[in-house]
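Model it.
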Amino acid sequence: MCFRKLSLFLSVALAAVALASSGKVNIREWNVPTPNSRPHDPALAPDGSLWFTEQMANKLGRLDPTTGQIKEFALKTPDSGPHGLVADRDGNIWFTANFKAYIGKLDPKTGEVSEHRIPDSRATDPHTPVFDQSGILWFTVQNANFVGRLDPRSGQIKLQQVPTPDALPYGMAVTQKGVPDFCEFGTNKLASIDPNTLAIAEYTLPQGARPRRLAVAPDDTIYYSDYARGYVGHFDPSSKQIEEWPSPGGASSHPYGIAVTQDGTVWYAESGLHPNALVRFDPKDKSFSSTPIPSGGGVVRNMAATPAGKIYLACSGVNKVGIAEITR
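Modeled.
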């Protein structure tokens, strides 16, 4: 145990002074037109645009990264509290109405919004949505302690309760094998749900861990942000092995939004720092580098990676969205 702690200490010490060899991180930010909209989550659309939820403004927003223009789309149900969002293959934007217990679909061509009401009255707060490879939408329901499945073809919604009470299912991602994995933010566990049987398996992390968001790497393993302890972790679904590293910002850095680019680089936000830091972790040499977010970030709750290696950000407390990329 002592040797492990020494190794972790040396790893972090070396990482703290490591310089990024592949270039500098450049972060551009844009103001959301509606004040105090609380841009919560970002998403990548098939055309490369950056979509985001405006949770307190009851809108969805679209940023054209080329022109910098933002277009907003009002939702039809007042105070829906749009939280998470994801694009389907046709470019429609699906979102969770965290305040009104429905899953919504926006057609960007027409602005029309359709709503799928969650059938169980206990499931009031849908949280993070993701699509699997067959086009099924999966989502977490945080405080109600469910995972949901929505078939867009029929509109049918199925719910499965998480075995651990008060687990607070939070961030979610689908592996290349088509298995949805999710964080249990209320306890020290990750979990997966069988896409056919809806059986949930749970995986225990080190004591005190509180995983909040997770992302799938090119090798189909999972990286997660441990918000409570200030760690970034790695979970291999095949071997069930767990690795973890202290975040450069320390125990109170509150790692939150996380994404993995196609080269295997892990990106995440240290939301407990002021300004928030965008951290880049290289799994090959276990090195870290950090870049302050110019606006301060105001808590970067989620992020999305593009095929070109850019990172889309929603900076909730400062009413901005951003794009991070490597410049040579």
